[in-house]
């Protein structure tokens, strides 16, 4: 027996948090009976439906790697009718992004309907590295670089920088291109790191997620992950 919200997430219908919201919104039934308590447990024999659609039947999982363009929402849908990452993938399967990138941030994002893998990739205890290229205003001083390498505090929590590299400086435009690798998943965390040091982030792109990269993918392009890549992602646990 497992908690209902966990099972919903494992079937790839929604994240565990979203599943809890669906339960509280009285949209989930087990064996035809409405469920409203988050502590409810179910077995493999129970029939789970959300908004009267049965979800626990044989599922073919799909995994995509997308090079997200600017001005695209990292969500399944958008109230303002803006383009979402899901809109860019040609599939009839109900997929969703693993984590998120800001509206104006570009780069690597994974989409899937595999709730188990999504939870592994987003769980902070597995400390999965993510690499970004940030174009910032100004130039990092030696003292600021030392601060980053030692670990910088954001909201009283230290962000450990796994790798930091100054790729280029433009003295005429007073900008720098910085590569930074972190295992954090907090919202706007890269922008907040540089803002804490007084440097605005002009552009931001995620180039790597664990061992995955954007090789061969132009902005807006995507590809399916191979079985080998999916197994390797699972092994990160």
CATH topology grouping of the largest domain: Alpha-Beta Plaits
Going by CATH, the homologous superfamily of the largest domain would be: Pseudouridine synthase I, catalytic domain, N-terminal subdomain
Structural class: alpha+beta
CATH architecture type of the largest domain: 2-Layer Sandwich
Strand composition percent: 25-35%
Mean of residue pLDDT?
92
The ordered string of helix (H) and strand (E) elements is: EHHEEEEEEEEHEHEEEEHEEEH
Overall CATH class of the largest domain: Alpha Beta
The first-to-last residue Cα distance is: 22 Å
Radius of gyration: 20 Å
In helices, the fraction of residues equals 10-25%
Low-confidence segments, given as residue ranges, are none
Number of helices: 6
Number of DSSP E strands: 17
Q: How many discrete domains? A: 3
Largest sheet: 9 strands, mixed
* Multimeric status of the protein: single chain
Query: What does the overall shape look like?
Result: elongated
Topology:
Blueprint: E1 2-3, H1 4-10, H2 16-24, E2 28-30, E3 33-35, E4 41-42, E5 48-50, E6 53-54, E7 63-68, E8 96-97, E9 106-112, H3 115-122, E10 130-137, H4 142-150, E11 152-154, E12 157-159, E13 161-170, E14 175-182, H5 189-196, E15 201-209, E16 212-213, E17 222-224, H6 227-235
Parallel strand pairs: 9-15
Antiparallel strand pairs: 1-4, 2-3, 2-5, 5-6, 7-9, 7-17, 8-9, 10-14, 10-15, 11-12, 13-14, 15-16
Helix pairs in contact: 1-2
